[in-house]
Amino acid sequence: MDIPHSSHCSFGPSPDNVWTRRDDCLSLVRPVRPSRPVRLPADGEALEIDLARSALVVIDMQNDFCHPRGWFGQKGVDVAPMRAPIPAIASLLPAWRAAGGKVVWLNWGVRPDRLNLNPTILFKGKRSADGVGYAERSPEDLGPSVVPGEWGARVVDELPTADGDVTVYKHRLSGFWDNELDSLLRQQGITTLLYAGVNTDRCVFSTLQDAGFLGYDNILLADACGTCSPDYVSQAIHFLVRQLHGFVASAGDLTSALAGLAAPAVQPPSSTSY
Fold first, then answer.
1. Catalytic residue among 66, 203, 225, 228
2. Per-residue confidence band for 4, with pLDDT thresholds at 50, 70 and 90
3. Which region, left, alpha or beta, applies to residue 168 given φ > 0 means left and ψ of -120 to 50 means alpha?
4. Is 25 in the active site?
5. pLDDT single digits (tens) 118-148
6. Domains contained in the chain, CATH given
């Protein structure tokens, strides 16, 4: 039996990954995505990326790690190194968004009951009977640590999120472990990831490594990343990225390269279902 259709509509997660219902057929042909090349210096040569297939992944720039009253700050950790990337990221975000770049906020966000956190993670987060662990409350109670919806899991005020940004929560160092990040990126047609955030040698590097194993192109924006570890640790990470996993570049150079680049015009379909 024929099913009547009175209007055109599209089904898909992004404008170029859709099926289209027309009067005469259901088309599974995806629209062609025009490339949008951008050049920036990286590792001593010009590196060209396709902005149309790239995402800026900002990792763990949230209150519990970067705010003096957050989980780390109340533990006595100096949060200055975690706050150091804020100016570079804050400068890059408007240029990146204005050029049509996608932003993914990748934050720690654990279950309140911690049922999927193993003993190693729970020990490293707490250390002692009187310590404050994952999903527990610090002496100055601003809510359970790194739980989605709570203050500590929110991005710091200095880095405002925007409509069109995507937030993904993780419960491991790597953002690709046991969550939807890989599926989300693939459905959007993303092949190149640029990294900012903290800590360079922990969640940033773990995520970058797993992305490389999954086939993504990796660019570490060194001046937009920070860590409370000694400087030689970051130097080792930069060496490993250059040697094995991708490229090291500068958020400042990327911001300059994006200057004056406008976002492409997108014509919305008459109706869309997701």
1. 203
2. low
3. beta
4. no
5. 999 999 999 999 999 999 999 999 999 999 9
6. 33-260 (3.40.50.850)
